[in-house]
Amino acid sequence: MKQFHEYQNPSLAVDLVVFGYHDNTLSVLLLNRREEPFKDCWTLPGGFLQMNETFRDTCSRILKTKVGMDNVFLEQLYSFDDLQRDPRGRVIAVGYYALINPARFSIIAGSMANDVKWFNVRKMPALGFDHREIFQLALQRLKSKILYYPVGFELLDELFTITELHELYECILQTTIDRRNFRRKILDAEYIINTGTKREGLQNRHPELYRFNRKLKKNNFQININIS
Amino acid sequence: MKQFHEYQNPSLAVDLVVFGYHDNTLSVLLLNRREEPFKDCWTLPGGFLQMNETFRDTCSRILKTKVGMDNVFLEQLYSFDDLQRDPRGRVIAVGYYALINPARFSIIAGSMANDVKWFNVRKMPALGFDHREIFQLALQRLKSKILYYPVGFELLDELFTITELHELYECILQTTIDRRNFRRKILDAEYIINTGTKREGLQNRHPELYRFNRKLKKNNFQININIS
DNA sequence: GCAAAAGTGTTAACGCTACACCCATGG
DNA sequence: CCATGGGTGTAGCGTTAACACTTTTGC
Lengths: 228, 228
Known about the structure:
2 copies of one chain form a homodimer.
Chain A: E1 11-22, E2 25-32, E3 42-43, E4 46-48, H1 55-67, E5 73-80, E6 91-100, E7 116-120, H2 131-148, H3 162-173, H4 179-188, E8 192-198, E9 208-212
Parallel strand pairs in A: 1-6
Antiparallel strand pairs in A: 1-2, 1-4, 2-3, 2-7, 5-6, 8-9
Chain A binds a DNA duplex through helix 4.
Pfam family, one (chains A, B): WHD_NrtR
GO molecular function (chains A, B): hydrolase activity
InterPro entries (chains A, B): NUDIX_hydrolase-like_dom_sf, NUDIX_hydrolase_dom, WH-like_DNA-bd_sf, WH_DNA-bd_sf, WHD_NrtR
C-alpha cells in the first residue's frame, strides 16, 4: 500500500464571500487580481489551505492579511469541485461567507489601493472563476438564514434601533416588511434587549437602542414577508 | 513560484450517510472495517477522491462498488476538516447523504458478509473517526429538509399510499402528525398525484396509490408538526 | 355485522396582516 | 405648532389544529 500522502491530491482553497452593510446597502468585498488567471478581474478573496490549518483558520488568515479583519462571523457554505473550475489545475474550493460591520474596519477601499473594494450586491461586476456561483449561493443562504436565525446583528453596531434592524431586513430580503409587525415579531422572539438608552441628536423622536440577546432560548422565530 | 501541485495537500475523502427506509424504520448503512484504523469498528462508507472525479463521482463509485447501488439521491452536507479527525494523517472529508429505497437493492446484509449492515438510526453503535458527527448532521438535515422539500419519495416505492408517506414522516420526525391534516397538506401542495389505482389485497379498505409529482410548481409546502 | 383502516368535513382558536392612532423631538 | 419618524393597539381575516363522521374491505 502506498504511503498516505503519496497519492496525488487536489489543491484545497477557501473562497470568502464577505458581506458588509453600510448606508442601507448590502455589499460584498471583492479583490482585483494582479496575476493570471483572471488578471484584472474581480474575484472573491481566497487562498490555499495549509497543512496545519482548518478552513476557519485559513479564512481568518485571509481576512486578516488581505483585508485587515479579525474575529468575524463565519459560516461554511458549500464545497465546489468542478473539474474545470480553476485553469491552473484541480482546485477544490470550500466557500465560506462572513458577516462584518464595515464601520469596525478601516479598509473601505483603503490600504490596498484599488485592489479591494465593496460592491453593492445588486450591482456586481463579472467575477472570475466560479465566484459568481459562490456569491449567489451565499446571498441566498443569508436570505434564508436571516428569517430564522438572528444573524443580522453581525452586520450592525453593538447598539442599534429597531428601525435600523428593520431596514437591514428589507435590504437583504428586497421586500417591504410592515414596520409595526416586524417590531412585534422581533420583540416577541426576545432576540434583542432594550438598553434603556436612546439615540440622541435626531430631528425627531429619539428611538430606543437595543442590543442582541446572546442568551436566546429557542428557535421561536420566523419572519414572514409581505411581498409588495 | 512553486508549481501548482508541488504544494503538499491534505487527502480528500467522501463519507456517505446512506439512509434507507423499511418496515417503518429509518436506517443507515454502516461498514465494519477490516483494516486499521478503527479495525472492527462500524463506520460510514467512504473513500478517497481521485484527481479526475467530482465528489458526486466519488459517491457514485463508492455506492456502486461497496454496496451495489446506483443512481440515487445525493446531497452534499458539509466539509469536515478537524486536524486530528483521521489518525493516518491530514484527511478532509466531505460528507454527503443519500436516500435510497432498500427494496431496490439486494445487499441488505448480503454480498459483503458481515461487512455491510443497516442500523436503525435510533440504535446506532459507536462509530469510528468523526462519523457520529457526520451522521447526526445528516439526520438533522433530513429532518429539516423533509419539512419543506419533497424528499421522502426517494425512500418509498414508485407508488405509495398517503398512509405510507404519513408513516415515513412520523418516523423521520419522531412525532405524531394528524393523519387528516397531513393528507390535506400534502394534497394541497400538489406534491403527489393520484394514479387512480388502489393497493389490493388488504384486509380493509383499499387505499389509493399515488406517485410523486415531478413537475411541482413552487415551494408552497410546509409541514407543521404537532408535538404529542 | 364487525373490526380496521381510508377518505371527507367541520369548527373553534390562534396568528398574522393591515391598518389607525398617539408620542417625542427639532426647527 | 408642524413635520417627521418612533411607539402602541386592534379588528378582521386566513390558516391550522383538533376533532367526528362516513366509506370500504375481509372475515
